[in-house]
Amino acid sequence: MAKTKQRLKPRKPTAAGVVASSPPPASPPPTAESLTGETPMWAIWCRRIAAAVLGGQVIYVAYFPSDSVLVESGDALWFCALSLIVWTLTMATQPYIKALRPPGSAKDPRTVSALLGNGLTLDVLVWTLAAWMMIAALASCPPGNLRQATNEAWVWIAAAAVLTAARRLLVDRPNRAALFSLCCAVATGMAVHALHQQWISLPQIRAEYLADPDAVLQSAGVDAPAGSAQRMVFANRLLDGGPTATFALANSLAAVLLVAVLAPLAVLRDGSTVNQSGADVRSGWCRAFLLLLSVLGVAALFATRSRSALVACLLAGLWIWMRGGRSGEVKRVRLLAGAALLALSISGVVLVALLLWGDDEWMAAAPASLEFRLQYWKATARLLWDHPIVGAGPGGFQAMYLRYRLPIANESIADPHNFLFETLAAGGFVGGWLLALASIACLMTCRRTATGAGTSGTDASDDVIEDSLAGETHVVSRWMIGGACASLGLVWSFALISGQLPDLQASVFAVPVAVAAGWLTHRSLRDASTAQLRLLGSSILLAMMTHLTVSGGWTVPGVAMVIWMATGSLCTVGRLGDRGNPTGQRCKAFFSGRARALRCFGNDEGPEGLRPAANTSSNAEKKCFTALPTGASTAVDSKRRGKSALVAWSVGAVLLLCLRSESIIPVQQSQLALLRAEDAARRGLLSRVESESRRAVEADDWGFEAPRWRSEFLRGRLVELGNDPAVRAQWVASLETSLDRAGVNPTMLRAAGEQYLHLYQCFGQTADLESAERLIALALENSPTDLSLVAQAAMIAHERSDLTRARELAEQARWLSALGGNVVRDLGLQQILVVEKMGLAARRRPISASIKDRFQQRLGGGGEPDSQPNRNNETSE
């Protein structure tokens, strides 16, 4: 028996068995060359150009921010063209750039989300909002002006273009780091420029004004007679106002300065996670310089005297401190601070609602600056009640606001000083509803894209993706910085050629400091984690939106550009397939040779014989990658990509063609012709003034500035030539053209009426007085709380021997003067035109006098109401 027993020995596997059971050798990660087989080189180059143009826009808006009313005049049209170029290049190449992503980071390329990126709801909503704004611009004219309306509507389209393009261009960390570095460089340069104005330029101008006020007013193009309220307002803002740098308003500058403060703070919050190499941020000189940049921004913020910007900066700094630390470090503080912020927000909303819709005495009890804002918002709410669908339309708020301005208010504003009310005023409740939906979609997209950014500070897929692209994302980021440098060179080159140099003395200090700040910030951010970049973007967005709740600038490209890019960096389209099962984990498994074999041949830890031989179609979609496409499916996918790119090229070309033909060319030709006419007028070339002014009027069928200027010129010629009939006919035609194009604009109606009053002073014709009465009455109907306009109508009624009407209007003027206790409303400071025949004395310029003097001379009695003990001279930007 023992001999028959045999020891069972395991069989040695054959060579074929060894090969079959052993996993295949690990394969290296795909490189850019292996992943771009289906990506044409033109797509890669177009993507780089898009990044370069986006970087160039950051520099462009720093020198041409189009602040205040410049957007309505067409100053931002070239910015809109650049935005559409970025969008077209990005969207046309998006289907091909998806081929740069490794397997497992994309779905079926035949779906829309695979071709253009997921999270398309936000894109659809922002483009719907932009389209509605263009519809509102067309629907609100008349009574608005079509040129101003479309000029601002194009800015809304540019906003949608920049946001949707940034969501795709800023997917990778190097691109986000480069863009934030450019924004920090621009903001730091603005801070230096502001401090130069505060310490050098403004004191010099103030000294010149005190020595010769008339010369400074003439150089600034301001008509403010001595002793008038206009001169007092100008003096107050010059002597007490803050710096503006390249902007028109200090509050707009303050919004950009927030970046100069917050970017270094976000870098310094946790240097160990910001720079993974550990060579830059932890060094003492680097920390010291970053701290110096932040202090520089804070100093500039204080110089602007913007209280809302300082509050926004404190809130964002608190946000950085809470979110920048480790989870266990500030967990309790986060909870308490979040509860406090929620309670503060609810209290603020309730308080503002009570002040807006409560008793006017409550509003008067608020601080002066807040009281002005509440006046603006209450008037805007009244406007929306009468025009709920489209509001005033884009570009129409300034003219329509005068009809709803509260009697206690005395300022003419270009926007409601609140981004929500500004949107409602431009697009009605439909525009506000679309903005709310877009905001909700933005928050949801931001939350979804933040899934992979945990406490470690990095997306799981970032390292794998960037390695697989073999540096292509770093090339794109370098193109972005290169585009910014090229834009800086082009701006200064055109300035040198045209002779219109920026503030050269301030630029000597601002440009080098900005370059140094950008270089240092980029060194600190280029290795920053995704969580740190998201922290920086969210803090900038929080600060700027907080500031814009009580300040203007929502449609100012120099301010809004930063908001759009920060939003785009937080709401990137993401790498498809990152829901539920993070893409990074699957990609890491894919790029590991051992894991790749496990995915192909099944679970290696199961018993032999139970291991699946290969991946099947039933569970292929659950794996990191699917089977390689066949030649037919590849051809179909390529065809779909081509169709998507063709649609993007077509839409972008149509938008650019419309912008060029309907806005850029007419506006530029009219403005250039008008500049030539003004130059010819200064040199006394009357025949050239006639031809160039006529060309300016004919170049733009929608603009009213050119015919208004031509009517002013012809009025002067009419006075010089002694009421020549031919010149009068030309003057009347130009004046009617400007009024027809301007729509219902009280300012234009008053200006036209004052032209007739000037002719009445010179020639004493009753027809001129009747025309002036008609225009002033129409202006008063659309601006019933204008103190000087009421007084002017009273004097016209007195000249027309309507004494009852004259006394009624005079009493109304006295009542308006007594409201608010503001010294600017004093009847002795408000100027109106004298309504009587003056003859030769009025030929050089119209003769004006204070309301108080005219009331005393023509109506008798005291011209001023009872004295007000608490009068002040405060004004708001």
Describe the structure.
The chain has a two-stranded antiparallel ribbon with strand order 1-2. By secondary structure, it is mainly α. Helices cover 68% and strands 1% of the residues. α3 crosses α21 (472-498) and α3 crosses α24 (557-570). It contains 35 helices and two strands.
Attribute tags:
single chain; mainly alpha; two-stranded antiparallel ribbon; 35 helices; disordered N terminus; disordered C terminus
Radius of gyration: 33 Å
* Percent of residues in β-strands: under 5%
Overall mean pLDDT stands at 80
**What is the tally of helical segments?**
35
Q: What composes the largest sheet?
A: 2 strands, antiparallel
Q: What is the helix content?
A: 55-70%
The end-to-end span amounts to: 111 Å
Short note summarizing the structure:
Helices cover 68% and strands 1% of the residues. It is mainly alpha-helical and 877 residues long. It is globular, with a radius of gyration of 33 Å.
Please give the structural blueprint.
Layout: H1 15-21, H2 32-35, H3 41-63, H4 77-97, H5 112-116, H6 120-139, H7 146-169, H8 173-211, H9 213-220, H10 229-240, H11 250-269, H12 271-274, H13 284-304, H14 307-324, H15 331-357, H16 360-364, H17 368-386, H18 397-404, H19 419-449, H20 462-468, H21 472-498, H22 504-525, H23 530-547, H24 557-570, H25 583-591, H26 593-601, H27 631-683, H28 686-699, H29 705-720, H30 725-742, H31 746-763, H32 766-782, H33 787-799, H34 803-818, E1 831-833, E2 848-850, H35 851-859
Antiparallel strand pairs: 1-2
Helix pairs in contact: 3-4, 3-8, 3-21, 3-24, 4-7, 4-27, 6-7, 6-19, 7-24, 8-9, 8-11, 8-13, 8-21, 8-22, 8-23, 8-24, 11-13, 11-14, 11-23, 14-23, 15-17, 17-18, 17-19, 23-24, 25-26, 27-28, 28-29, 29-30, 31-32, 32-33, 33-34, 33-35
